[in-house]
Amino acid sequence: xAVPDSHKNDPSSHTxxxxxxxxxxxEQAQPHLESKGTFTxxxxxxxxxxxxxxxSLVFSAPMTLRQLFEELEREFxxxxxxVLKSSQFxxxxxxxxxxxEGAMQGKDEHVTLKAxxxxxxxxxxxxx
Length: 128
Fold this sequence. Notes:
This protein is 24% helix and 23% strand. With 128 residues, the chain is an alpha+beta fold. The chain has one domain (33-122): Ubiquitin-like (UB roll).
């Protein structure tokens, strides 16, 4: 929200945001930007194996699911067809209703990954 010119130099117009006891002093010192930051991608089963056995990756936010899949394909060629095509996806511990094919065709553009989101790739798991 923009500050009107008449209030820019008026100290009484500046309000101090109360400190959140659950955030660190480093977090409090930095401005809060919802549109900038990173999110974590958690890798399970074959997704982890395909990504050099990494348990997680960190990406810049915001990003659509399609952009994430394109980035993964650049970093790990073939992951789309071999892993993502048959996987399900979660954002902040909730499954999202989207598919790799749908995202690549632009059908799932409504899923935007934001700063501090936790995204999961959950490949099919067989039991025996």
